Amino acid sequence: MVDISHLLTGEALAAFAQVIMIDLVLAGDNAVVIGLAAAGLPQEQRRRAIIVGIIAATVLRIAFAGVAIELLHIVGLLLAGGILLLWVCWKMWRELRSSGHEGEGMFNGNGNAAAVPRKTFAQAAWQIVMADISMSLDNVLAVAGAARDHPAALVFGLGLSIVLMGLAANFIAGLLVKHRWIAYVGLAIILYVAGDMIWRGALEVWPGLAG
Amino acid sequence: MLALAVLIFLLPPEIVLPLFSVAALAGAAIVALAALVAPRFAALKPVNAWDVAGALTLIGCAAAILGEIEPLLEYLKPMPERSNARG
Q: CA triplet A138, A142, A143: central angle to 5 degrees?
């Protein structure tokens, strides 16, 4: 019999609760970016883009968790991550704007507006990976800190975030295909994440520059 | 709605958004399950069950992102480990 009594202690349960909440945040911003990037693709490529995004986020998270302590010593990493994410936001904004203009005046036989996917799979995958790099940098230290003495919680959290990312990105992409204007809401959320990273990164860098 | 407002006032501020996020994501999961089990929900027009699941997911993700994670982590720690600063 496998002894699971050590998983039911107050400390272990608290670690599990912490990891679940952190992974909710981690999976949340990744899911919004993946959903946004994948929404501009045709149906068959959308699923592939979501899978690429989840694999990239998982690999990056494991890799960054392995060097979490070293990453702590690099000043300006958060600021760089924020700027990278801001650039991804800019690319997405331009695509949203251009797809809106392309959609104007285009109608199919039923009189409905015909959405023409112009984005390529490579473009979407590149955006997803860039966003994954910056967002994984931001939050991986929190997970490593919360679950330092509970590897089971860490593994559980990783599995949970993969499932959450996959399902959430799929739902969000499906919604954005039908209701394109909601993509601006998603973009605003990612812009907030980028702004928050830049602000905290700037506060971290400032003492070094001023002194 | 009133019950929700009362709940928001009664809960510690640091866990309102995370709990709202969990509730929205759970709602999305329930609606998605309903769409799978009863396909008529998935065929409704102009807004179907998958749209509702997507909207709830986006709201849940937004609430999770906007919620401050550090105070929540402090709140979830076992009592003796919590910092004295939090009160």
A: 110
Q: What is the pTM of this model?
A: 0.77
A18·B76 Cβ contact <8 A = yes
DSSP secondary structure letters along A28-78: HHHHHHHHHHHHTS-HHHHHHHHHHHHHHHHHHHHHHHHTHHHHHT-TTHH
Contact B20, B63 (CB under 8 A): yes
Task: Search chain B and give the residue with CA nearest A28.
Answer: B61
Closest approach of A123 to chain B, Cα-based (Å): 23
Residue B68 to residues A21, A173, B19, B81: CA-CA distances in angstroms? 11, 26, 12, 19
Q: Which residues of B touch A21 (CB under 8 A)?
A: 18, 69, 72-73, 76
Burial status of residue A170 (CB atoms within 10 A of its CB: 0-12, 13-18, 19 or more)? buried
Contacts of A60 (CB under 8 A, 6+ apart): A132, A133, A136
Least confident piece of the model among A23-32, A53-62, A132-141, B71-80: B71-80
Is the reported ipTM for this assembly greater than 0.90?
no
User: What residue has token string 């401050």?
Assistant: B68
**What is the tens place of the pLDDT at every residue in A111-132?**
444 444 567 888 888 888 888 8
Three-point CA angle A8, A13, A14, nearest 5°: 150
CA–CA separation, B21 and B11 (whole Å):
14
